[in-house]
Amino acid sequence: MSDKAPSRSKKSQKNIDSIPHSAELGIEFVCRDDTSATLKIPYKKELIGNPLTGTVHGGVVLSLIDSTCGRAVFIALKTPETIATLDLRVDYFKPAQPEQDLYCVAECYKLTRTVVFMRAIVYQDDIDDPIASSVSTFMRTSVQ
Amino acid sequence: MPEQTKTIDFSTLFSAARQTGDYDAVNELIPYAHFLGIRLDHDEDGTPLFVLPFDKKNIGNTHLPAIHGGVIAGFLENAAIIHLLYAMESSTMPKPINCNIDYLRSGRPIDTYAKCDVTKQGRRIANVSITAWQDNPDKLIASARYHFKVTPEG
């Protein structure tokens, strides 16, 4: 995946920064293509969930998944629309390594008139050895 | 630093909090919980009650406005972890295995509350249900089911 249009990349980062909690987490736009988006959260001590190991909280992983799916939903929809997360399932394969950034890639695998079905993978240094996998659904609230 | 060199005596920490009613040490335990502003309280019968005071930085949708779905999920997961430690149903930090979160209503810009129910406590796995609401406990904004890997006391 590569994003050759820097203006589109800047716009994506601006969209992320306009969401207060995404900005607070320090979410960064990485890249997108015609079907998927990749975002990252740089490691920060404030986000630790296990004080014994320095591992980031599962809630941070969930926020990254929700945010990345949200971005990828807009890629799938082509035109902007109001969406709401309906449900989210996450399988945690292994704890995130401390001091390392978290990446999430999300894509829409089915789009209907009312619902967007999404899947996502969270990884650190190797996408083939992910730390979590997720499926989620989003309501298209502006469509009856 | 090797993991084995660090330990936290959760049972002493939580017993002290229960006796004094001062939960600051518990609230400071997890940096991310502090980051979201989560507070631990308890209801009349002593059941842990979790509070997520409204904070502008937790907004995920500025148009509605609504609390970020990730914040609500993080709040629920943290509630389950603290609940398991508080109830001394785990002597180490419970590790999430998986979760199902249903978003029932949007999280309005007001305080949010959560309560947990340990549906099943096994030797290695705990199944926890968590519900969240705002001004009306009958109108849930989210409910979740979690599996955690736990290490029971003794």
Describe the structure.
The complex is a heterodimer of chains A (144) and B (154). Chain A is of the alpha+beta class and 144 residues long. Chain A has one domain (6-140): Hotdog Thioesterase (Thiol Ester Dehydrase, Chain A, Roll). Helix content of chain A is 26%, strand content 38%. Chain A contains 3 helices and 8 strands. In chain A, strands 1-2-6-7-8-5 form a 6-stranded antiparallel β-sheet. In chain A, strands 3-4 form a two-stranded antiparallel ribbon. The longest helix of chain A has 20 residues, at 58-77. The mean pLDDT of chain A is 92. Chain B is an alpha+beta fold. Chain B has one domain: Thiol Ester Dehydrase, Chain A. In chain B, 25% of the residues lie in helices and 34% in strands. Chain B has helices at residues 10-20, 24-27, 31-36, 69-86, and strands at residues 39-42, 48-52, 59-61, 66-67, 95-103, 112-121, 125-133, 140-149. Chain A binds chain B through residues 18-22, 24-25, 45-53, 56-60, 62-67, 82, 84-92, 95, and chain B through 3, 6-8, 29-36, 56-63, 67-71, 73-75, 77-78, 81, 92-93, 95-103, 106.
Distance between the termini of chain A: 34 Å
Indicate the radius of gyration of chain B in whole angstroms.
15 Å
Computed structural class of chain A = alpha+beta
Number of helices of chain A: 3
Largest interface: pair, residues per side: A-B, 38 and 43 residues
Taking all residues together, what is the mean pLDDT of chain B? 89
Shape-level CATH architecture of chain A: Roll
Task: Work out the count of structural domains of chain B.
Answer: 1
Shape of chain A: globular
Distance between the termini of chain B: 27 Å
Structural class of chain B comes to alpha+beta
Give me the CATH fold name of chain A.
Thiol Ester Dehydrase, Chain A
Overall number of domains of chain A: 1
Biggest sheet of chain A: strands, sense, closure?
6 strands, antiparallel
Low-confidence stretches of chain A: none
Strand content of chain B: 25-35%
Largest sheet of chain B: 6 strands, antiparallel
Rg over C-alpha atoms of chain A, rounded to the nearest angstrom: 15 Å
Q: What are the secondary-structure elements of chain A, in order, as H or E?
A: HHEEEEHEEEE
| Order of the strands making up the biggest sheet of chain A | 1-2-6-7-8-5
In CATH terms, what is the architecture of chain B?
A: Roll
